[in-house]
Amino acid sequence: MPDDAFTEHRPLLFTIAYEMLGSAADAEDVLQESYLRWSAVDPATVEHPRAYLVRVVTRQALNHLRTVRARREDYVGPWLPEPIRTAPDVSDDTILAESVSMAMMLVLETLNPTERAVFVLHEVFGYTHGEIAASVGKTEAAVRQIAHRARRHVHARRRRFEPDSDAAREVVQRFLLAATTGEVQALMDLLAPDVVQISDGGGKVVAARRPITGRAEVARFVLGVLRTTTTATRIEHATYNGMPAARFVTDGELDWLVAFEIHDGRITGLYGIRNPDKLHRAEAVLPLDRGGHQPWKP
């Protein structure tokens, strides 16, 4: 049955769409469009349903990405991916955890749509250049060149980080304790010298309009933000995009969340999302899957 095949592969399809688009809402739109196309096909004519669905989702995501890129150019302030709450076991898959991290998703934003699709399908999901060619409408030779160019671009810009773990969560807990009690030196000791803080308010709420870099500057910013919180604000620990995160909940509503990038026991990046459009979907844990890829004939 068409529904059975689509449901079986849905986590894989969602993961591909999300990594190509950086938005869970847009990924869901792509899956809906892809499902409509899939439901119009006679399953008996499809030899490899997963291969067919991956191809359809990739093409729909490419079309969608070309549309939203123009919209993001007019975005107010820094743009961050829509955060997705992930199960702790996502961190056990190092490739998957890194590929959905905030830092990597921002690097993927600097690729053109075809480069992004090729990089994601090849480097994250393990598809061959020949398999990818059918999905992006290029020759195998062209895909090979695109993959090489995209890999070189990404590797030159990627930031090393440690996925969510007990050790990473302990760093976050110490950081939040130091920040909420105003222990400046303890706070500074947990920040890397080149730490960067990025806030995404989308022009809809108060948020820093530019990235903040450097240990002293970030510490000052964090302390200033926490001084504005009220006693009604509750801090919850969670995992988002394979990273340790803190949720700031006020009067039962998620006001903002911060994902922490940690390397060698120090915080190298803080990604704060306050845009309410990106927070309203941040409650449910979304299943991610790389699909246990096996080669298929395009």
TrEMBL record:
It comes from the Bacteria. Residues 102-153 form the RNA polymerase sigma factor 70 region 4 type domain. The keyword Transcription regulation applies. InterPro entries: ECF_Sigma-70_Domain, NTF2-like_dom_sf, RNA_pol_sigma-70_dom, RNA_pol_sigma-70_ECF, RNA_pol_sigma70_r2, RNA_pol_sigma70_r4_t2, RNA_pol_sigma_r2, RNA_pol_sigma_r3/r4-like. The keyword Protein biosynthesis does not apply. Pfam families: Sigma70_r2 (PF04542), Sigma70_r4_2 (PF08281). NCBIfam families: PRK09636.1, sigma70-ECF, SigX4. Interacts transiently with the RNA polymerase catalytic core formed by RpoA, RpoB, RpoC and RpoZ (2 alpha, 1 beta, 1 beta' and 1 omega subunit) to form the RNA polymerase holoenzyme that can initiate transcription. Residues 6-68 form the RNA polymerase sigma-70 region domain. Transmembrane segments: none annotated. It comes from Streptomyces sirii. This is RNA polymerase sigma-70 factor. Keywords: Sigma factor, Transcription, Transcription regulation. Belongs to the sigma-70 factor family. ECF subfamily. SUPFAM superfamilies: NTF2-like (SSF54427), Sigma2 domain of RNA polymerase sigma factors (SSF88946), Sigma3 and sigma4 domains of RNA polymerase sigma factors (SSF88659).
